[in-house]
Amino acid sequence: MRLQIKNIRIVDPSWDSKDLIGDIFVENGKIVPKFLNNADRVINGESKIAVPGLIDVHSHLREPGHEIKETIYTGTRSAAKGGITTVFCMPNTRPVIDAAPMVEFIIHKAREEGCVNVFPIGCATKGSKGVEISEIGTLKKAGIIAISDDGLPISNSQIMRRILEYTKMFKLPVISHSEDKELSRNGVMNEGKNSTFLGLRGIPKQAEEVMISRDIMLAELTDAYLHIAHVSTAGSVDLIRQAKKRNIKVTAETCPHYFTLTDENVKVYDANTKMNPPLREQKDVDAVKQGLADGTIDCIATDHAPHTQEEKNKEFDLAPFGIIGFETVLSLVLSELVDTGVLSFCEAISKMTFNPAKIFNLEKRGSLKEGNIADITIIDPEYSYEFNKESIVSKSKNSPFIGRKFKGGAVMTIVGGNIVWSL
Amino acid sequence: MSLKFKDLLGLERLDKKDLQIILDSVKPFKSLFTKCGKMSDLSGKTVVTLFYEPSTRTRTSFEIAAKKLSADVVNIAVSNSSIVKGESLIDTGKTLEAMNADYIVIRHSLSGAPDMLARNLNVSIINAGDGFHEHPTQGLLDLYTIYERKKKIEGLKVLLVGDILHSRVAKSNIWALTKMGAEVLVAGPPTLIPSNIENLGVKVYYNLDEAVKNADVLNILRIQFERQQENLFPSLREYVRLYQLTKERLVAAKPEILIMHPGPMNRGIEISSEVADGPNVAINDQIVNGIAVRMAVLYLLKSTKKRRYASSN
Q1: Which residue on chain B is closest to A201 by alpha carbon?
Q2: CA-CA 20 to 30 A from B32: which of A72, B239, B256, B312?
Q3: Do B168 and A199 touch (CB under 8 A)?
Q4: Min CA distance, B131 vs chain A (Å)?
């Protein structure tokens, strides 16, 4: 099929920050220079913006094992609605993704039922138990994009060192969920004035920062490749900034809630404001934005973590951590970062396209260069809508952003040359 | 007279005016109670006490208060283990609402449980203590006891001693007292006093002797023994040595000092028996005032428009 998108503003961070109005040609799932014949389908791109398909490096699709929360079918459709063409899914399913057949299952299932690209992340340790290194070489051969025991920090420093060291030869980033479990024990929200007066056990920022410090030091020791997941504190941003200055191979991601909300939002005990790491304070929000602006934080990921209403509509202590994020990430980036001048449009898009593709060695994605796979997100900067529960495509509805009004969002998602979602 | 919300979830959400309304209402209920009279104000209303934590004094106090107002009282005690296993709290609440309960008085070990019920139900929810969050009727009865004895709140220095971090009584006291213009001092080990408490204008002391000198009122909090297992203090012996209110410590105090304890007391731990049974102690008043305060709260919430806290926020 030949697809032509006409008269559209094209913003491509990979290509000297290309920003021009023109046409995009797609043939056989690839971006091509021009057709000799007529297109099978022409899309009018006036007043819209085409960017490389968004890549979300951190999500939970919950399949296998937790299909009641999300499946590959529903999760990828939720992603498509958010303008996301590629998702990396974390291995904390049931069973966990620590062996080749599990990786193959996800890849097969995504090919059969998914509508966006799915790249599994493999466990760093067998059973995510933090004791024995998983067969990373075998997992890589089966198709993983990175390794992580997300949700469960690797507490033993010697094991973390071995993981970083061993993984080097496969050129896979090790994604660290940085949390000192002893410091955060039983905590359910940020430790501070609000946790004191809500009477909820706090998680100090240092629970995150202590572990990031350790992991940076181990990355320096091993010269391995470390990617820090969901950065939430000012101290963490600073540690990563210093590490980068010392040329340690560290990259980092944050999530929209960490540059949008604070622990003030926890006030009525709404478990849709409960996630790990927890919502922090205004000075952390400001520092995360600063880290995004100066390049300390490379990627914006969702940490899409679906949970059912029954699980979330519980006493705050008993509700699980996590919120969904696919369907709000782009609009939050546009309203909180671009409209406010923290990032230029192109810089913001880069953190969801070009940077993730580069960090995770994704070939022929994250860029609209000719010859690349035709993963394209079309954005309407004027598209105004209210994010409501009824509109949510994900199987779960656990979002603190329900009821928020947005201007600007995805209106069409193209994966491998096929339109998988449009408004 | 009425309050803003249909529920009493915590004193943080009340303003000075609300607190004054409650204080002004307590006195007539107290004289009624002490004269053994009964009012028919809540005749035909049903008050359910739903206790997920064992409690004798608070539950009994609520029951007597409700019965003095001619309400029907149903007591439900739920074992702690069923919080995780059994019926969800919201479903339990909905069941009670379907049975035409007018008030649910809830005690729960998890902070925010009453808020959750209030958000999901139309019935009036009264928080009888939730986790480490608040114990509003205790805060009110402490406030009233001080008011009754000292004839004022504003300008008084009230010292709370012990585990501030895990104490719902401390939280409700801090809100009520600071809103009414008192100065709140706290004393205890740094592990039990959150440093961020100073943002509220609360003055922190680690040395009890120094703190006692300055105080007009002492409110001694019960220390939970399990805190020692969390390494928040090394031993009860050391806690007693540093923070027990003793006769010796009171020598330096103001002569007209008022001593309170929310109960139940650990005699010989946070307070010596000599002090507990000595002069200046208002512990008995607190118990009587507790009933009057709860009568006032039940009465005031009856005439409150059905306005929800959650939707007004």
Answers
A1: B132
A2: B256
A3: yes
A4: 7
pLDDT at A35: 78
- In angstroms, the CA B183 to CA A309 distance is 43
Q: Which of A50-54, A264-268, B122-126, B300-304 has the lowest mean pLDDT?
A: B300-304
- Give the largest Cα separation in chain A, rounded: 68
- Whole-complex ipTM: 0.91
Active site residue A303: yes
- Of the candidates A303, A317, A339, A380, the residue annotated as catalytic is A303
- Determine the pLDDT at residue A38: 85
At residue A415, does pLDDT exceed 60?
Answer: yes
Domain B136-282 of CATH type 3.40.50.300 = no
Among A227, A406, A405, A401, smallest CA distance to A325 is for A401
**Nearest to B202, CA basis, from A196, A77, A235:** A196
- Domain total for chain A? 1
* Same fold for the pair B16-134+288-312 and B136-282: yes
Q: Which CATH class is domain B16-134+288-312?
A: alpha beta
The domain that holds A286 is classified in CATH as: 3.20.20.140
pLDDT tens digits for range B244-262: 999 999 999 999 999 999 9
Residues A324-349: b if buried by 16+ CB within 10 A, e if exposed: bbbbbbbbbbbbbbbeeebbbbbbbb
A71 domain-assigned: yes
